[in-house]
Amino acid sequence: MTVHVPVLTGAPTDQQLIDFVVREARMIDQQRFEEWLELYTDDAYYWMPLEWGQTDPKLTCSLMYEDKLLLKIRVERLKGNRTFSQKPKSRCHHVLQVPQVDRRDEAANEYVTWTPMHYVETRFDDQKLYAAWATHTLTVIDGQIRIKLKRVDLVNCEAAFGNIQLFM
Amino acid sequence: MAKYRGNVEAVRGLVRETEVHRDLYVDQELFELEMEHLFANTWVYVGHDSQVPNAGDYYGTTVGTQPVLMVRNGNGDVNVLYNRCPHKGVRVTTEPCGNAGKFFRCPYHAWSFKLDGSLLAIPLKKGYENTGFETSHAAEGLAKVRHVKNYRGFVFAKLNDAGLGFEEFFGDSLSSFDNMIDRSPVGRLQVAGGVLRYMHNCNWKMLVENQTDTCHPMVAHESSAGTASEVWKNAPPGTKKPMAVEIFLPFMSPYEFFEGMGIRVWPNGHGHTGVSHSIHSDYSAIPGYFDQMTAAYGENRAKAILDENRHNTVYFPNIMIKGPIQLLRNFIPIAADKTLVESWTFRLVDAPDMLLERTLMYNRLINAPTSVVGHDDLEMYERAQEGLRCNGNEWVNVQRLYDPAEEADATVVTNGTTEWQMRNQFRAWSKFMTMSM
Q1: One GO BP annotation here (chain A) (predicted)?
Q2: Check: complex ipTM more than 0.85
Q3: Chain centre distance of CA B379
Q4: Fewer CB within 10 Å, N side or C side of chain B?
Q5: Residue A1: inside a domain, yes or no?
Q6: What SS3 class is residue B289?
């Protein structure tokens, strides 16, 4: 079901920021990836650090540090006829704690939320559980909340993982 | 009943000129024999000495499935010790890496050991008087791996006395390490950026073979690199080609590109793709780097170093390096159907940061558990691990561009799509597997 998102006329309320973060996870779970990509600003990054407390995304390796072009490649690839690692397709499921609004900077049009979550990714007989904290840096563009940076810190970021194919 | 233990002829029979038996990938008994023989008779990568820069620094890892410690001694040497207290068998170090100070102290009963492994002290030592303790295994301290070589920072160990000396085992293949290291204006590398650890439910040899398999990129990676190419085509005209696109697109090069790049095989299972060019040849120049290299080496030598674009160099049995981007992948065997892949990256000391930034981007786009290229490959390995159970055909084919006159342990440059390097690895497998049986 598509949820109607009202156009904001002023700064978003905390509840509007929280609703946005929850809807973003729902879009991933429902595999509405093209719509999901539209939630990101053109200069956005999706960052999944490799190290605990990592501060540098460029001279320290990350699991993911992807701009919109790279995210689009992923979204297109998931649909591909010769994407064999998605035959059969993966599915995923988020359980979020209520997001907390950590910072509001209306002058800079920037809002930061923090969301502990459990994420399950499955493919055929295999099901894996991950625990993470998502930090969203949000902004408002044309009355819509948009993501400038989504940072996903896995509680076991340095562990040896098998394939993680969708988005946390 | 044991099928292969004590039966050297049965082991030899598994490797034919152009095909190998599926038990090399699926049989757990054979895996255990690999750990006892193949991974003991060959020089296996331990780590880089920049991981233990100071006296007392240690790094815990494995050689085959044997837990070991790489340790920097007080005199600056790097030792490799078995990571097991001689008393009750407890792993001596508490962290994966760290600094032991002047000695190791077992966390169970406080037995302590010098950095070279020898026994330093035991609490309540009187309890061992007149027990003949001096002649016990325990009195020897932490067992030391006897054959260790530090080659320009890269530390290798050979567990058995059998096998070849370091120089004879690697021979001219060390030129790939040399080229990677010489790319630093001061000829030195440093581990940097963190290690990507990616668990694979497949046999370690599938990964090693894949490193010189040049007929799979345009097929298996059509989904990732091919999609990248399609998405890039829709970029607004005039957009500067991003580093990520530079990294992805060469994977979709046609067969002719890979045939022309060439493969070089060396004795003892080593070999590399990309003799004349590679997927790394056309990366953008990094500002200032060539000038630094020219200042350090002179223009001709700098050009010679940077014109080398070796793609993947396989050091038998289980690592691969990419000289042009300072990356090392370690295919760590865990079980017949389980392999931990560690992808390490290096900083060229005194070179621009941008080189490390590109190397790290390559590593996360290609070698991470979140990498779409990684997903493509692992899917194929896991399908093979499953398919090899089929009894309808027990053999894996490695026949491409085989010539019956092909010699074992030769140094040859040939067509870049040959499976000679795979055959080279299996001949080496047979040789080092059986030499101590």
Answers
A1: 3-phenylpropionate catabolic process
A2: yes
A3: 21
A4: N
A5: no
A6: helix
Q: Cα separations (Å) of B349 from B47, B190, B353?
A: 18, 7, 9
Pick from B342, B395, B366: nearest CA to B26: B395
Contacts of A67 in chain B (CB under 8 A): 242, 244
Which range of residues forms the domain containing residue A36? 14-78+89-154
pLDDT digits (tens, 9 = 90+) for B49-100: 999 999 999 999 999 999 999 999 999 999 999 999 999 999 999 889 999 9
Q: Chain A contacts of B387, Cβ < 8 Å? A: none
Contact check, Cβ <8 Å, B194/A76: no
* Cα–Cα nearest to A64, from B376, B364, B377, B246: B364
Express each pLDDT in B400-436 by its tens digit.
Answer: 999 999 999 999 999 999 999 999 999 999 999 999 9
Q: Which fold has domain B195-434?
A: Naphthalene 1,2-dioxygenase Alpha Subunit; Chain A, domain 1 (3.90.380)
Determine the residue among A34, A47, A71, A85 to mutate to test chain B binding: the one whose Cβ has the most chain B Cβ atoms within 10 Å. A85
Give how far B111 is from chain A: nearest CA, Å.
Answer: 31
Q: Is residue B229 within 8 angstroms of chain A, CB to CB? A: no
Cβ neighbours for B164, distance < 8 A, ≥ 6 positions apart: B268
| Residue A3 predicted with pLDDT over 70 | no
Return the DSSP state at B137. S
At residue B98, the pLDDT reads 96
CB-CB neighbors (< 8 A) of B380 in chain A: 84
Of A61, A77, A158, the CB nearest to B227: A77
Q: Helical H runs in B221-371?
A: 227-233, 243-248, 255-261, 289-297, 299-307, 353-366
Query: Which chain B positions have a beta carbon within 8 Å of A163's beta carbon?
Result: 369, 374-375, 378
Integer distance in angstroms from the first to the last C-alpha of chain B?
18
Domains of chain B by residue range: 45-151, 195-434
Residue with tokens 């990676």: B221
